[in-house]
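Give me the fold.
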Amino acid sequence: RALSVRGRTSVMQYRDSPKNLRDIGRELNARYILEGGVQRAGGSVRINLQLLDTERDEHVWAEMYDRPLTVENLLAVQSEVALRVAEALNATLTADEAERIEQRPTDNTEAYDFYLRGNQFAVGDEESRRIAIGMYERAVELDQGFALAYARLATEHVWMYHEYYDRTPERLALAKQAIDRALSLQPDLPAGHFALGVYYFRGLLDFDRALEQFDLVLQKQPDNTEGHRLLGGLRRRQGDFEKGLAEQERAVSLDPRGAPELFLLAQTYSTLRDYEQAAVAFERAIALRPDWPSPYTWYAWDCLKWLGTPDSARAVLELASRRAGPADADNDWVWTRVELYDRNLDRALQRVSQAPALIDIPRYYLPKALLFSEAHDLLGDRDIGVVYYDSARAFMEPKVREQPEDSRLHIALGIAYAGLGRRDEAIREGRLAVELMPVSKDAIDGPFRLKGLARIYAMVGEYDAAVEQLEYLLSIPSDISVPLLRIDPTWDPLRDHPRFQAMLAKYE
């Protein structure tokens, strides 16, 4: 607690850097740097370490360790180094901290190796997360008392569920089993309580119980970057954007070169309609991770909300296509919106053709037929649009029966019904989606459901009801902005409505 420690994501960027220590310290806002190297030869390991003062450019402490290669020895070195660094920097350890430093997660060298490999894959896409799960499962097979590996396994199961890679009750059950095992082995394990917090937050949307767990983690690990980042996201969903922003800014201060932290901070600024601050954070994230598609996609969307000009967003997306490689589902969706807002049917249809058969993301569930119907309908080819709306209806109806609690599905089906002129059924589905995911339950996803309901109202001629939803969305943090409303053909039926014009003038 006496030391502020920079996050691994930022630090590891300097692993092979030619920069001098003073520059590294300034970029990380860190006075001291611990550096070293590890050499492994047969059954032995040599670890060279030195603690450096970046302002004075001098050694504070240095040590070399030659040990037989066992988990016990490796972790003993880690404990000794932590104590020596604390002593050298005159940092006072609490009794709990001293005890935790001495704890050993496993004595099984092979299990520890699989655990470390799992950590390397525990980020990114579905394939990476499945590999991580396999590594953690192997670790706990080798050591059934390895609480830390159970905790990380549980966290990955929850992310699989949250990211819609496997949205089944069985996946959440696997997560809970691993959490229970971890906490039964080690009740005070911060990683176990972190996993339980993620389970409540991302799995059950039980924000109050998740908050209790994250508070426990941050009491023991005040510099846990991921803990602050997730707590910031949780606070946003509770509707407390001020505290959410503070937590995310704290995460960025702890991991100043961490692109994920900057990306999420940028999203919060954008939701709060501070588009200029969002742009700065998006650009910083892109500079740090130019090969990562997501910041480009959201920056393009931020440009649309901020400036209302498709060309500004298109420039960002084209930059992404040159630098970041294959697009993700969000990228496909935003590209389609850009061409629709530019009123270019041919390019919009081309973008839809390139999109996956299904865009299945936390905000939206969109079969390709619905994208085609929207493009044709909004840009003047109504007859073909109806054919696609009916295709989307046929696809969505069984999905809704299978997963009636998924609010995204009801919005998609409601839009299909609206496109077919089935007014009452469309409104029913839209209202049900809002009941399942109200703003009071989730201040991030809830507004997307209201936006979907507003669209349904506009499609079926309930213009006052549509404007009412949009005006509420403009009064709270949301994805809606006046520049966006002005260019989106979705709202063309409202253009001449007096309440719509008054609303735009009010929130200009």
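The CA atoms of residues 79 and 101 lie 5 Å apart.
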